[in-house]
Amino acid sequence: MNANTLLIKAKSQLTTKYPYFGMLASRLKHEESENIESYASNGVRFLYNPDFINSCTIEELSFILTNCVMHHILSHQQRKLKRKGYLWQLATDYAINNLLFKNGMKMPHGVNYDKKFKNMYAEEIYDFLKKELIESGVDAFDDEKVQQNDEQKNNRDNTQKFRKVKKIQENLDERDEEQWEYASALAKEVSTRKSLMPLGFERLAKKVVAQNIDWKFELYNAINRHMRNNYAFMPPNKKHLYRGFALPSLTSDTLSLIVAIDTSGSIREEILGAFIEEFKAIMQNFPAVNIELLIADAKVHAHYSFRGAEDIEFALKGGGGTDYRPVFEYIDANFPMSSMLLYFTDGDGIFPRIPPSYEVLWALSNKKDRIPFGRALVIF
């Protein structure tokens, strides 16, 4: 079994046993590299040395992948609070590994784990480690000295194999970070519904300030609510395994989401481009959802059907006035069992007199005083 297959198997096992960890680990794109000794990750890319991966068991690989994604989740949150540095990374590593141990994951020999940190917040572990360093005469705010001290202490038992997470030194753009936030929120909601949320998750970091719930979070929750069936974690969906993704299966039919994009003359080109990017983000975050895309202004110009994030190609046509009624009439004629419509628009148009029976989400380019029905989400 080669290294790539081992990683796919580890992701699949994680998705089955630990859906929260598995759904996030499935987002890691693993890439072979002989320029590194073991592995490195930035939460999106996972570089690995094939010899190192082949030397690991499936349980050890599951641990590595989970540790990587949890570090990314925490580092993204903590950057907002200006927390960084080797000592903070070390404290979060102890907190993460205590969480993994508490949830029954097999701990590789030599990881940063100490039972005295059981049920402690990352902040509390940080304070404990800082006090230890100060008492031993080490400057706790000098990253280089803190790292040297840690390596000297742990070189005594030659257990560096799983000692720390290596990082790819490149910054993720804002869109990557946002998608991770939404993926984490979705994984949490799915795991909570299945009563499989990791034990002790809330004790990782106590001072993470919840951000204002933005439109994407509300949108993704709305889409998730309308899935007819919960995720089934036995067996994982094999469709994306060849790409390194191990996603949960759905037990039967999935949601058919209808998305309409307003291409009328009142929509500026940059706004239209943003609508398209947000549509593509939905496709990527909901690969198991059937999506019917309608291109319309005062009439429906085109209809495209998509499932999954591959080959998202469609042509835009419009530039006329805005009349929402043709879209609703088209849905009534072609999708009588619809449960939800997402309409990207500016909100300036003719609305149907009678609201439809299904849920309508208006993704608006600007705030409107009054939308006659449905839920308005201002996205810009």
Automatic annotation (TrEMBL):
Q: Which residues form the VWA-like domain?
A: 257-379
Q: Which intervals hold domain Putative metallopeptidase? A: 8-244
Specify the signal sequence span.
Answer: none
| Protein name as it appears in the record | Metallopeptidase (DUF2201 domain)
Family annotation (Pfam families)? DUF2201 (PF09967), DUF2201_N (PF13203)
Q: Which organism is it from?
A: Arcobacter venerupis
PANTHER family found in the cross-reference section: SLL7028 PROTEIN (PTHR38730:SF1)
